[in-house]
Amino acid sequence: MAQRILKAIHELSRDLGIAILTPEYEILVALLAEGRLSPEALCAHASISRSGFFHTIDRMKHRQLIACEVDGRDRRRKTYRLHPETAQMIVARLMQFRRMFALAELPRSTGDDAANGPNGARPRWRGDRVLNITCEYQVLLYLLAEPGASNGEIVNAVSASPTKAHAALARLVSDGLVNREDDPADKRRKRYLIADSARSAVQRTMATIFSWLDEIGSAPGDEAPPSPYAPAPRPAGTCAGGR
User: Fold this and answer.
1) Which domain covers residue 110, as residue numbers?
2) How many CB atoms lie within 10 A of CB 142?
3) How far are the Cα atoms of 91, 94, 143, 198 from residue 222, in angstroms, in the given order?
4) d(CA 54, CA 58)
5) pLDDT per residue as tens digits for the range 37-68
């Protein structure tokens, strides 16, 4: 069922030329979509080196996000799968992300008290608190919600060091995904806007993900639905420390 999400994220990454999810979340989404994958197949979904992949896998196994199983007929063959609770967590976070995204897309003067924060101010976009997304994609989403933000506002909005945030913004400008303009009130100050092509690509991907959430029976404000995958059958064996 979740193959469309995986495909949409891969296509967005290709269209924008940047990574969308952190390596850990790339692995989680791949397993959500495919159910079970061999180490080789799973590594192909992660934008890190092979050694970095296995370090990440080891951390995820330790945190009990994923399980490693061995084939009873060939103990050299191993596969990874999500724990059912992990699949539920991903769906719940996608639902929360959708609620935040919907609020970010509302006009600033929406007049909807439920959508606005204290004193009528719209809640600040912080999608990185829900999904593990890269610094570059955080910048794009922030500019989607806050067009014309200044350099300082962008740096303060993303969960990265100022050096990394500045580098991400510079790359996006260089790649034509973000436009930089003079501030009419102060020519020494720059304002940044997401490019139309990037905006369309992001919104198209979000529509695909939110459509999938609708199909599995969720709606904004609902609790997490059951895992899209039935619990795995009793494994023939479980990986004992090896990869």
Assistant:
1) 100-199
2) 24
3) 11, 11, 27, 30
4) 6
5) 999 999 998 888 888 999 999 999 999 999 99
- Cα gap 225→87, rounded to integer Å: 10
- CATH of residue 119: 1.10.10.10
Q: Is residue 152 part of a domain?
A: yes
Tokens matching residue 15:
């269209």
DSSP state of 119: G
CA 125 to each of CA 105, 140, 152: distance values in angstroms, whole numbers, following the listed order: 10, 11, 15
Helical pair 196-215 and 135-145, crossing angle rounded to 10 deg: 90
According to DSSP, the β-strands at 186-194 and 178-183 are antiparallel
Residue 184 in any domain: the answer is yes
Sign of the Cα torsion 38, 84, 205, 25 reads negative
